[in-house]
């Protein structure tokens, strides 16, 4: 970490993680400071890359995206050109919420959110028509037990 984080910064980060839509006045009140110093600290954290873009978390099921698949991909292709084509295919598909390159037997894991199994099959058929893969295993999540974007800030040592 290149930026120094103190106890006040840590409190601000916790508030931003909890609800980035709250007012600057509310954040200042929660951390025991005033508005201008809090704004300056947020700007410093943003400039340092600690704080990124603000988004809203939407309820996938309420919007009809009831199926979440974890897709395990093995490939026998490891050339840069294949990887670039694969990454482009993933970037162009909004169904892919997360993609990770792994160590071990599985090369990639994707988190894919779709309306139903038919929509997943459409996604799958489109992906394999664009990029050659050795093996694909799709696992349907039966129940989301925990999902969070919150980082364990208590593990950050303050300066």
Poorly predicted runs of 5 or more residues: none
CATH class of the largest domain: Alpha Beta
Number of strands: 4
N-to-C order of helices and strands:
HHHEHEEHE
Distance between the termini: 12 Å
How much of the residues is beta strand, in percent?
15-25%
| CA-based gyration radius | 20 Å
Number of structural domains: 2
Total DSSP helices: 5
Structural class computed from helices and strand pairing: alpha+beta
Please identify, by name, the CATH architecture of the largest domain.
2-Layer Sandwich
Mean pLDDT: 95
The shape is elongated
Q: Percent helix among the residues? A: 25-40%
At the fold tier of CATH, the topology name of the largest domain is Alpha-Beta Plaits
CATH superfamily of the largest domain: Lrp/AsnC effector binding domain/regulation of amino acid metabolism (RAM) domain
Could you give a short account of the major beta sheet?
A: 4 strands, antiparallel
Q: Strand order within the widest sheet? A: 2-3-1-4
Protein name: Leucine-responsive regulatory protein
GO molecular function: sequence-specific DNA binding
GO biological process, one term: response to amino acid
Domain HTH asnC-type: 5-66
